[in-house]
Write a structure and sequence with these properties.
About 55% of the residues lie in helices and about 5% in strands. It is mainly alpha-helical and about 325 residues long. The chain has two domains: about 210 residues, 3-Layer(aba) Sandwich (Rossmann fold); about 80 residues, Tyrosyl-Transfer RNA Synthetase (Orthogonal Bundle), CATH 1.10.240. Strands 1-2-3 form a three-stranded parallel beta sheet. It has a two-stranded parallel ribbon with strand order 4-5. Helix 4 packs parallel to helix 14 and helix 10 runs antiparallel to helix 13. The radius of gyration is 22 Å and the shape is globular. The structure holds tryptophan (TRP). Tryptophan binds next to strand 1, helix 8 and strand 4. Tryptophan (TRP) binds next to strand 1, helix 8 and strand 4.
Length: about 325
């Protein structure tokens, strides 16, 4: 079985967009892969994080992943800071990756913005840590959104240069698993913008802990146009808001736009929004309930994550020790 690794930032309770775009696809991969799921708190501090908030958000993200169906017994779930191998291998990769490679990373340019001089050095070497996350487990398949493709190419460049410089075939090539068609959920207020936690308007998104009334209100207020739903997919062109709501409905029922329109085409938005609200409540209520249950016993949650970290370290430590030996470190640590 192929080993899958993926990481998600501890940005607190995710949105419906994160769920349909990423998390739900992780759950599906569990059927036929060995999966390692990591909440990447080391990556989070590349930009300022309030310590209490980081702690809370790391646990919230872990709880949501479990509530969505991450299986911590068959697979592994942990927090990145719980396994030292990530930072250890990242240091070696800092010395393998070239400045020229990092200078091409579009995410650094976006995140650092105009004030580059004031960005942390961690933000600059963020992709090296991400490469270490994956290569510390010899993982070969990595589910990510399209925006992470460039980072995976860099991870492959690092592996190749390491293998070449040290004359070994040690780190394997990684294949991205680019996530399915439902991956793009747009803002409820503007169908041309991605649904995002950083949008100032909470009305623009569904959060995985919104209760039924909040969901109903947000869907009722979601931007639409005055026409009824078309009966053909072509009719959704130039109607981004309509396309988005139909897309959400399709993703939640595991069908496509065409089948949703077959059932609801010709309807006004009133009845369609009611149907969508019912569906959202039905799918999200169990996740919300399970998330709060898990968060109500932080001790148990931390124990579960600790056991995940121990199992992760059992895989990563020997791989990183071997990388250290290949580099020429004498190796004073036992075990
Ligand atoms: N950079 C990824 C993101 O922002 C998160 C991440 C960190 C990751 N390490 C990873 C994803 C390793 C895949 C594999 O989405």
């Amino acid at each position: 079985m192929q080993r899958v690794f993926s990481g998600i930032q501890p940005s607190g309770i995710p949105t419906l967009g994160n769920y349909l775009g990423a998390i739900r696809n992780w759950i599906k991969l569990q059927d036929d892969h060995d999966c390692i799921w990591c909440v990447v708190d080391l990556h989070a501090i590349t930009v300022w994080q309030d310590p209490a908030a980081l702690r809370q958000q790391s646990l919230e993200m872990a709880a949501v992943l479990l509530a969505c169906g991450v299986d911590p017994a068959k697979h592994i779930l942990f927090l990145q800071s719980g396994v030292r191998a990530h930072a250890q291998l990242a240091w070696i990769f800092n010395c393998v990756a070239r400045l020229g490679w990092l200078n091409r990373m579009t995410q650094f340019k976006d995140k650092a913005g105009k004030d580059r001089e004031n960005a942390s050095s961690g933000l600059y070497v963020y992709p090296n840590l991400m490469a270490a996350d994956i290569h510390a487990y010899h993982a070969t398949r990595v589910p990510v959104g399209d925006d992470q493709r460039q980072h995976l190419e860099l991870a492959n460049d690092i592996a190749q240069k390491f293998n070449h410089d040290y004359g070994v075939e040690f780190f394997p090539n990684i294949e991205p698993v680019i996530l399915g068609p439902a991956a793009r959920v747009m803002s409820l207020r503007d169908g041309t913008k991605k649904m995002s936690k950083s949008d100032p308007s909470d009305q623009s998104r569904i959060n995985l802990n919104d209760d039924a009334d909040t969901i109903a209100l947000k869907i009722r207020r979601a931007k639409t146009d005055p026409m009824p739903l078309p009966s053909e997919v072509d009719g959704l062109a130039d109607r981004p808001e309509a396309r988005n709501l139909v897309g959400i409905y399709a993703a939640l029922t595991d069908t496509d736009h065409a089948s949703v329109l077959k059932e609801h085409g010709g309807q006004g938005f009133g009845p369609f929004k009611n149907a969508l609200t019912d569906l959202l409540v039905e799918k999200l209520a169990p996740i919300t309930a399970e998330t709060s249950r898990l968060l109500s016993d932080q001790g148990a949650l931390i124990d579960l994550l600790r056991s995940g970290a121990e199992r992760a370290a059992a895989i990563a430590d020997p791989i990183v020790s071997e990388a250290e030996r290949l580099v020429g470190f004498v190796g004073l640590r036992r075990g």
